[in-house]
Amino acid sequence: MIASGVRAAWREVKPIVLGLAGTSLLAGLARRRGLALASAGLLGGVFYFFRDPERFPPSTGREWILSPADGVVTHIDHVHEPHFFNGPVQRVSIFLSLLDVHVQRAPYAGTVKFLRYESGEFAPAFLKDTHTNESNFVGLDTPHGPLGVKQIVGILARRIVCWPAVDDTLATGQRLGLIKFGSRVDLFLPANTELLVHTGQKVYGGQTIVARWLA
Prior knowledge:
Blueprint: H1 5-29, H2 33-49, E1 64-66, E2 71-81, E3 87-96, E4 103-105, E5 110-118, E6 135-141, E7 146-153, E8 160-162, E9 169-170, E10 175-179, E11 183-189, E12 193-195, E13 202-203, E14 209-213
Helix pairs in contact: 1-2
């Protein structure tokens, strides 16, 4: 069972928020103005980074596949995905800066049939070749075919969070996880899809249409 995205996101950031809030309060009571202001500033930064706005997928077109993340499309290529698809797929790479929302969403309604976490390195997420970075792959089984979402850490990101479990059902645009502090998300598309975005394009998770099913 998946907790609501807001509650799950709060659970991830709760210790940081409580720690900074407590430090700011105690520093204020002790009249240590510099420490109080610094703690309050960091607290505001944490709230901004972990913001989780409501997103409303387009109401028409059951063929639309949505972006799984906010960011900029940096690479589009064809690769062999050996674990879930076991074959050639089209990969759309989205780079998330520190200013982007870092909650990931399901690109299409389906059932989680595959999860694969891999430990690894922390190379800059905007580079094309980050296959050795720490990552988490979510494989979705949809009525039209499989889709894959891969969460990849960057040079600053040090933790991947994934909320669904195998056999959980996700609605289009439903929150599925987050990556802390700068990262990359890859969307894997099968052959029966048509890509509708281009490199350099800004996309928004759960809102921007990135592809459509052909059958």
